[in-house]
Amino acid sequence: MRNMNKILLIEDIENAENKTLTCIFEEKIKEIDCVTPIKAKLEAKSLGEFIQIKGHVSGKVRLECDLCLEKFDYSLDFDIDEVFSKGNLIGEYENSDKEYEIKDGQFITDLNGEKEIDIYDLLYQSVILNFPNKKVCGINCKGKEYLSEENNSDPRLEVFKNLQINPKCR
Ligand SMILES: [Zn+2]
Q1: Structural domain includes residue 79
Q2: If you placed Cys at 6, which of 31, 100, 120, 145 could pair as Cys (CB 3.0 to 4.6 Å)?
Q3: Model pTM greater than 0.85?
């Protein structure tokens, strides 16, 4: 369920003291398997043509291990630093679709004339992006042991296995 406090109006940021609004988010994100609500304290600041949103995100989600397929809890703890462009600035750049890079790792998202920023969607995207590349439940993952055992298997035993799986030989 989305409601108004998850939508930041550009106008409200402009009218706020120091053109800065603080936004607290504490809720489970429906599209993600959340163990705890996702907590975020964000600061939205108007920089003229740009809106910058900075803050910290924490919470616990449930992921599936890539090796053993067991579910495990993963703690989120990362910073958000996003810049949105209010104008049609990005249209002037060639080969740019929705965002372009202004410096290492810093992207600008074009609001395409939108008068609001969807905090729920921003957090959803950020959480997904901060999932580990390789999801492993832990150093004692059974899938890991299984894989390493397989890699170290004796080729002589492989022959034995092949004999066993062919009952017609009897
Ligand atoms: Zn595992």
Answers
A1: yes
A2: 120
A3: no
| 167 lies in some domain | no
* Domain coverage including residue 130: 4-137
Q: What HEC string does the chain produce?
A: CCCHHHEEEHHHHHHCHHHEEEEEEEECCCCCCECCCEEEEEEEEECCCEEEEEEEEEEEEEEECCCCCCEEEEEEEEEEEEEEECCCHHHHCCCCCCEEEEECCEEEEECCCCCEEEHHHHHHHHHHHCCCCCCCCCCCCHHHHHHHHHHCCCHHHHHHHHHHCCHHHC
**84 found inside a domain:** yes
Strongest mean pLDDT among 68-72, 108-112, 149-153? 68-72
Expressed in angstroms and rounded, the spacing between residue 140 Cα and the centre of ligand 1 is 8
| Ligand 1 centroid – CA 80 distance (Å) | 29
Ligand 1 centroid–CA 25 distance in Å is 31
- The count of structural domains within the chain is 1
